[in-house]
Design a protein that fits this description.
125 residues, mainly beta, Immunoglobulin-like, four-stranded antiparallel beta sheet, 0% helix
Length: 125
């Protein structure tokens, strides 16, 4: 079951680009899949702090010499940040892979240990 505080708030966008993402649970792990076409893994930064996973994408296109733009709509610089609250996950086991413009982050949920203990009642003095 996903954490009750799981969030992915679009207010965390910093930039105009919209990085689409899916968040799902499978086999005791939380997964985040993010489309990042045009980026490389060198343009990405992933951090985890107090249950929040933050993914940042940043790139700057190199301008070619001898080009004089008469009209330009494609960005030469972009930065996007998304933050997800994952809750209680095994932060040492968070992993990420990037292939064909798709970033996949896996975060194993901490196993809840159910311990049942019987408490004996002592006589009052």
């Amino acid at each position: 079951m996903l954490p009750s505080r799981l969030f992915f708030d679009d207010n965390f966008f910093k930039g105009e680009e919209n990085i689409k993402s899916d968040v799902y649970e499978k086999d005791g792990k939380l997964f985040i899949e993010m489309e990042a076409p045009g980026y490389s893994k060198d343009n990405m930064n992933i951090s985890f702090d107090k249950g929040e996973l933050t993914v940042s994408f940043e790139k700057e296109d190199e301008e070619e010499e001898n080009k004089k733009y008469l009209h330009r709509e494609r960005k030469s610089y972009s930065r996007v940040t998304r933050t997800f609250y994952l809750g209680d996950v095994s932060e040492d086991e968070i992993s990420a892979s990037f292939k064909n413009g798709l970033l996949v982050i896996s975060a194993p949920k901490k196993k809840e240990i159910e311990t049942r203990k019987t408490i004996s009642i002592k006589d009052s003095d």
